[in-house]
Amino acid sequence: MTELRPELLQMLRKFRMRAPLDEGDEEALLGLPYRMQTIEPGVYFVREGERPDRSCLIVSGFAYRHKVTIEGARQIVSVHIPGDFIDLESAMLNVADHNIQTLTRCELAFVPGSAIRELAMAHPNVGMAMWIDTLIDASVFREWVVNVGRRDARSRIAHLLCEFARRLEVAGLAEQYGYQLPMTQEQLADATGLTPVHVNRVLRALDREGLIERDRRYVGIPDWEPLRRVAGFSETYLHLDQVRSAA
Amino acid sequence: MTELRPELLQMLRKFRMRAPLDEGDEEALLGLPYRMQTIEPGVYFVREGERPDRSCLIVSGFAYRHKVTIEGARQIVSVHIPGDFIDLESAMLNVADHNIQTLTRCELAFVPGSAIRELAMAHPNVGMAMWIDTLIDASVFREWVVNVGRRDARSRIAHLLCEFARRLEVAGLAEQYGYQLPMTQEQLADATGLTPVHVNRVLRALDREGLIERDRRYVGIPDWEPLRRVAGFSETYLHLDQVRSAA
DNA sequence: TCTATTTCTCAACATATGTTAGGCTTCGTG
DNA sequence: CACGAAGCCTAACATATGTTGAGAAATAGA
After folding, report:
1. Homologous superfamily of B6-134 in CATH?
2. What is residue B236's DSSP assignment?
3. pLDDT in tens, A93-130
4. What pairs with residue A102 in β-bridges?
5. Whole-angstrom Cα distance, residue A76 to residue A64?
6. How is chain B split into domains, by residue range?
7. Which one of A92, A134, A146 has the shortest CB-CB distance to B67?
8. Please, are residues A5 and A30 in contact by the beta-carbon 8 Å criterion?
């Protein structure tokens, strides 16, 4: 079971941070059965109401989760980057409560739900790491509630940009002073609870004031501190330092 | 280890729904060490930045979690009712990313973090049940992002009222056509991302139109369907039917 | 390279919700 | 039962954000 599976390595690296894993745990994690699949941009791979019974790991590309109200308004509730193990809920809950869609072309590793559950049962350390992953997800959702509920448009967008900056940096996907953000302004609007027109206004204002520098989908952050301040951003909620020491 | 611990029974009943527990699992769950404490209304028992290393079960009363922006605006991110095992994050994460405060007088059972972790390690079924609990929490947070991000004030408040109605009903704490909601309009505002004044406007409008009937903090729902429709409420996200069959 | 489509930009105007402020009611406490 | 504090209600007015619509720029496909 020690074939080379470079696709899973990034995830393993992250899970190691979550909980202490022994050699058997790591082997079991790398031994997860999976099927690689490449999916084009904009494709739904989970739909609300479905029962997929499989999880998936993003090997490359970006994806997002969203829900649509009865009025047809869309709200993006999270954006995911390579290394994120998403849709663990599908392995554990009976029904999907939201949609998941690719943002860019993605390489995804699909893992059967039963394999996840068996892994959690046989290797409680790994179960704990996955649980912690879910706890951190929940923490990010909480911050999004705050973002959308209590910050004005300007801070809200700045906050989103700060969050991406830090997450991409940690994943080794950001350049020194910026990153490629593969979202349209409409998608940014759906993530912040604003309209595309207003996102445009705010983005241009931030640009004009030198807080960000845009070039197509590239977001440059010439100086972190002023943007951070406008956003009221504090990274505690990302739990980047999370290492659970043994019980 | 079979002393009577009526305080924990409600939680056990809920966890049984989450994952299949054998006799040993249930015994271990009921054997959790805890310390009962009664806390007055409005008291913080977790503060952002702290590291409590203990979880707690609400035996009676209501509590809520919130975060405060740099501008001083408060956003309530969840409200908890008796039977909720809250702050599992404090047992697993290094630092609290939000505040938790009592809404009414509460009887709380505090459980040491180490006991939670040991339980999860020794009884993977229980670990799985707790993980599922966290997954459902996360699902509720997602719905709150949608609520606050994409619904207008009227639907937003109606949605909150519907959510409470169903959750209290399931917990056996609602009367047939309504329930006691121990929140001020200011707190409702903080939960919906509105101002107290506007909450008042909307509440009176819903009342005037016969969608709800208020008497002090009592919320009567004479007819479920119209309110449900105004809210665009669908209970999928609460995962009330959640029963995870064996792997 | 050309064309069709999607995205971005901009402006004029509309409105849901916020702000401020005051009086009224209810509730808790002595 | 009286008092003070907390919560509720109301109104007039302010504004951040939404709406509509249309042209310009970028991107993707042929």
Report:
1. Jelly Rolls (2.60.120.10)
2. G
3. 999 999 999 999 999 999 999 999 999 999 999 999 99
4. A63
5. 7
6. 6-134, 151-246
7. A146
8. yes
pLDDT band at A175 (very low <50, low <70, confident <90, very high): confident
> pLDDT value at position B244?
54
Least Cα separation, residue A5 to chain B (angstroms): 25
Question: Nearest CA to A63 among A48, A84, A47, A49?
Answer: A84
Amino acid B214: pLDDT: 94
Residue type, A241: D
Among the partner-chain residues B94, B117, B242, the one whose CB lies closest to the CB of A93 is B242
Residues 113-172 of B with CB under 8 A from A: 114, 117-118, 120-122, 124-125, 127-128, 130-132, 134-139, 141-146, 148-151, 155
b/e for B92-105, b at 16 or more Cβ within 10 A?
bbbbbbbbbbbbee
The answer as to CATH 3.30.1440.10 being correct for domain A151-246 is no
The pLDDT of A6-19, averaged and rounded, is 86
Please give the Cα distance from A216 to A235 (Å, whole number): 27
CB A114 within 8 A of CB A218: no
Do A151-246 and A6-134 fall under one CATH topology? Answer: no
Residues of chain B short of pLDDT 70, as ranges, are 1-4, 243-247
Alpha helices in chain B, H assignment, sequence order: 6-18, 23-30, 88-92, 113-122, 124-150, 153-170, 185-192, 196-208, 224-231
Q: A155-171: per-residue pLDDT in tens?
A: 999 999 999 999 999 98
SS3 A120: helix
Task: Give residue for tokens 């139109």.
Answer: B209
| The pTM of the whole model exceeds 0.90 | yes
Say how far apart CA B123 and CA A121 lie, in whole Å: 9
- Residues B79, B191 contacting (CB under 8 angstroms): yes
Which residue's entry shows tokens 């590309």? Answer: A61
